[in-house]
Amino acid sequence: MIAVGEVQSGLFFSSRKSFGISLPVTSEFMNLLRSKLPNDLRDSAGNAYVFGRLFDSGYHHIGTHQSDIGGTGVVDVTKMTKKQAREIGQHEYWDKEIKNYGSKKAMDQVQSHVSKDILFIGSNKFGLGSEVYVHYNAKHQIDGLILNAGYFDFDDDE
């Protein structure tokens, strides 16, 4: 199980759906999240992080998470308690200036200082939340994930 939301403020793990979105993932997709950074796409309209292959169509809008400080991310919450989630959001490391969100160096630092369960941490171009889209394979398992902040303009029926 993963949670998508603003990691830096702890908003990824909340009973309020607008603060965090929980998604069941296969061990194969979890391994992909643990081993590979997403494609970071940016233009003047916004930015998006694409996990897995970028499919031509077939994405489903799961929800939109809010953001207090312009962050987004993915956390492995499979065995996480609410207390551990709060501790991530309240960690003193977030007071430091982190450069190059989404980079391997930033991820290594965050995982070393805050939690190995943080699979990805990124920023939103305009400090807004992210729309969360998933792609399902034929077995209805997630095989693609997009955190979109204005980069993609999906049709309503995607």
Brief sketch in words of this structure:
It is built from 3 helices and 9 strands. By secondary structure, it is of the alpha+beta class.
Provide an overview of this structure:
The protein is an alpha+beta fold. Helix content is 17%, strand content 34%. It is built from three helices and nine strands; from the N terminus they run ββαββββααβββ. Strand 3 and strand 4 (46-52) form a beta hairpin. The protein is globular and about 40 Å long. The chain starts with a strand and ends in a 9-residue tail after the last strand.
Topology summary:
Blueprint: E1 2-5, E2 20-23, H1 27-35, E3 39-43, E4 46-52, E5 59-65, E6 71-76, H2 82-89, H3 104-113, E7 118-123, E8 130-136, E9 142-149
Antiparallel strand pairs: 1-2, 1-6, 3-4, 4-9, 5-8, 6-7, 8-9
Keywords:
single chain; 158 residues; 9 strands
Lateral arrangement of strands in the main beta sheet: 3-4-9-8-5
Tally of alpha and pi helices: 3
Portion in beta strands? 25-35%
The assigned structural class equals alpha+beta
End-to-end separation = 23 Å
**Mean pLDDT across all amino acids:** 87
Shape: globular
Helix content: 10-25%
What is the subunit organization of this protein? single chain
Reported for the largest beta sheet, the result is:
5 strands, antiparallel
- Beta strand count: 9
Gyration radius, to the nearest Å? 14 Å
Give start-end ranges of low-pLDDT stretches.
none
The domain tally reads 1
Instruction: Please write the string of helix (H) and strand (E) elements.
Output: EEHEEEEHHEEE
